[in-house]
Amino acid sequence: MLSGKRILLGITGSIAAYKSAGLVRLLVKAGAEVKVVMTPAAREFITPLTLSTLSKNPVLLDLVKDESGQWTNHVELGLWADVFVIAPASANTVAKMANGLCDNLLLATYLSARCQIFFAPAMDLDMLKHESTQANIKKLISAGNELINPTYGELASGLTGHGRMAEPEEIIDRLKSFFSAHQPLKGKKALVTAGPTYEAIDPVRFIGNNSSGKMGFAIAEELAKQGAAVILISGPTHLQTTHPRIKIINIVSADEMHRAATYHFPQVDMAVLSAAVADFKPAQKATQKIKKTDAGLNIELIKNPDIAADLGKMKKEGQYIVGFALETENELANAQKKLQAKNFDLIVLNSLKDPGAGFSHDTNQVSLISPTHPVKEISLRSKKEIAIEIVKALTELHA
Ligand code: C5P
What we know:
Elements: E1 6-11, H1 17-29, E2 33-38, H2 48-55, H3 74-80, E3 83-89, H4 91-99, H5 105-112, E4 116-121, H6 125-129, H7 131-142, E5 146-147, E6 151-154, E7 160-164, H8 168-180, E8 189-194, E9 199-202, E10 205-207, H9 214-225, E11 229-234, E12 246-250, H10 254-264, E13 270-273, E14 280-282, E15 301-303, H11 307-314, E16 320-327, H12 331-341, E17 346-351, E18 363-369, E19 376-382, H13 383-398
Parallel strand pairs: 1-2, 1-3, 3-4, 4-5, 8-11, 8-13, 11-12, 13-16, 16-17
Antiparallel strand pairs: 6-7, 9-10, 14-15, 17-18, 18-19
Helix pairs in contact: 1-2, 1-8, 3-5, 4-7, 9-13, 10-11
Cytidine-5'-monophosphate binds near residues 273, 275, 307, 308 and 324.
């Protein structure tokens, strides 16, 4: 179950840090790839050498590695991990996590991680009982982090009570059930593009379109519900999402969406490209508001990058791309051509002719086309239901 899984283990300053060595051993034995990140205080309890030897990877300690200014990329570390387990999580680190503090590498990684996070508190019973600690733990849980409950027993202080870090075996069991639960996309990462793009003409005007982003947001929600960690790159919309496994990157222009999508694509297992990306942008953005004149105005337009086509070229084995097509004539043939040209694995054909389908509506009517399966027609229904069908088809491709 844990074989090949990328597990980032965060260790903080608690006496229970000695148990982390056993945890690393068990994880490596189970076939997982383990990287360890430690807070400065954790080094007082267990040496990096012990953990690098057991994990077979250098231990990550500081944001800045050495005097030459080399730094550890916490964003990449957070993207690398399938899960981030903070064990032991001291009262201090729990408080900092709950409040967004970021004064060491572990915390910076926590704030930028896109994967599921587990935390296993370890502290003295009164510290755990304290209302501040309890409030912090609640806050972390409501932000989507999974608590691995501390257990009852003798504590380092000599007192007896709740506060012992869960045993490594129990932590392993939690991770196993995380990866095996009936969420077919658990442990997977997905990228979704949604909404329109705005292409600036001058500081106050732009070329845009009527895309509401509803389809893309519904797809992101459904992917997250099925267990995936989702990066949602969205153009300007009025929509919001609160799912803890969805990270939104807000962009405005096609160039910005292109930059974000090509940056994140290598890390994901699948991409669903539902954004209505502007095909053209003004050749130049005027630095001042363009003045009204009696003469007309010509705006030279140049091509925008084709994000879908570029991701199609970057696609590696094991990655899947779903694209959309909005056609008004020869719909099926044109969609099939696009499927091939952009190296998609599935294309969702929208038909604008159907009343209630397409831009801004809450409903849609589509056909799902893949090179390997017969065309599947989905009659008019809510975008949420269409999203379920698209994610189901994607999951089947991925199986
Ligand atoms: O070529 P066309 O715009 O019809 O292709 C539609 C598909 O390509 C959609 O999935 C859309 O999100 C994507 N696309 C893109 N970048 C563009 C244009 C379209 O990702 N510049």
